[in-house]
Design goal:
Elements: E1 2-7, E2 10-13, E3 18-26, E4 33-39, E5 46-52, E6 58-60, E7 68-73, E8 78-83, E9 92-99, E10 113-118
Parallel strand pairs: 2-10
Antiparallel strand pairs: 1-3, 3-8, 4-5, 4-9, 5-6, 7-8, 9-10
């Protein structure tokens, strides 16, 4: 079982930057991929970015391509989401989750971290 903890959220102005962290604990041996999602009030959860737990593949949602970048430190079992050129529409609670197979669903959700971009 993997446990996830997000951190790094906060209040930033439009155009600013933040780096979120997703720290994993427990048995990550079967982790296939890690994903970042976000949910704003009254909106559905949205996929933001994902990466292979082992390997170099990353993928991004259309709304964040070119602005957000994933990186990973396997020794620390931590995945980072660098967010640049933030927009007010990036305001949301950000969550990370993992899945154990390519076709599987994301699970083991963290508690989330609030990102607020002020205009």
């Amino acid at each position: 079982q993997v446990q996830l903890a997000e951190s790094g959220g906060g209040l930033v102005p439009v155009g600013g930057s933040l780096r979120l962290s997703c720290a994993a604990s427990g048995d990550t041996a079967t982790t296939y991929a890690v994903g970042w999602f976000r949910q704003a009030p009254t909106k559905e959860r949205e996929f933001v970015a994902g990466c292979m737990w082992s390997g170099s593949s990353t993928w991004y949602g259309d709304s964040v391509k070119g602005r957000f970048t994933l990186s990973r430190d396997n020794a620390k079992k931590t995945v980072y989401l660098q967010m640049n050129s933030l927009k007010s529409e990036d305001t949301a609670v950000y969550y990370c989750a993992v899945k154990t197979t390519k076709a599987g669903s994301f699970g083991s959700w963290g508690q989330g971290t609030q990102v607020t971009v002020s205009s």
